[in-house]
Amino acid sequence: MEKNLKLIWDFRGPTAKQTAEHHEIHLKEYSTAQNLTLTTTGTMDISELYSIAYMIVTPTEMPEVRDALKPHRGQYAE
């Protein structure tokens, strides 16, 4: 069984949390518009000045999503 992938966008600075939350809205919109298999998105606060937004995708959908949305990094989803 293939592991799903977590595509991550990093945001830093005093508005990192708000920016990550806003970015997640667009990730959800993209997921719906493209009829992606998985619709898991979220945000996480790493510190007061560092937050991330993420989207979980299948390995087969990853190249299309990566090329369209340009995440900063990715890792296997847990």
Mean pLDDT, as a whole number? 96
The Cα radius of gyration reads 12 Å
| End-to-end gap | 14 Å
Number of helices: 2
Percentage of residues in helical conformation: 25-40%
Q: What's the number of structural domains?
A: 1
Classify the beta-strand content into a percent band: 25-35%
> What spatial form do the alpha-carbon principal axes imply?
globular
Largest sheet: 4 strands, antiparallel
Strand order of the largest sheet: 2-3-1-4
Characterization of the model:
- This protein is of the alpha+beta class.
- The chain has one domain.
- It is 33% helix and 35% strand.
- It has two helices and four strands, in the order βαββαβ.
- The protein has helices at 16-33, 62-69; strands at residues 5-12, 41-47, 50-57, 73-76.
- Strands 2-3-1-4 form a four-stranded antiparallel sheet.
- β2 and β3 (50-57) form a beta hairpin.
- It is globular and about 40 Å long.
- The mean pLDDT is 96.
In short:
It is built from two helices and four strands.
Provide key terms for this protein.
single chain; 78 residues; alpha+beta; 2 helices; globular
Summarize the topology.
Blueprint: E1 5-12, H1 16-33, E2 41-47, E3 50-57, H2 62-69, E4 73-76
Antiparallel strand pairs: 1-3, 1-4, 2-3
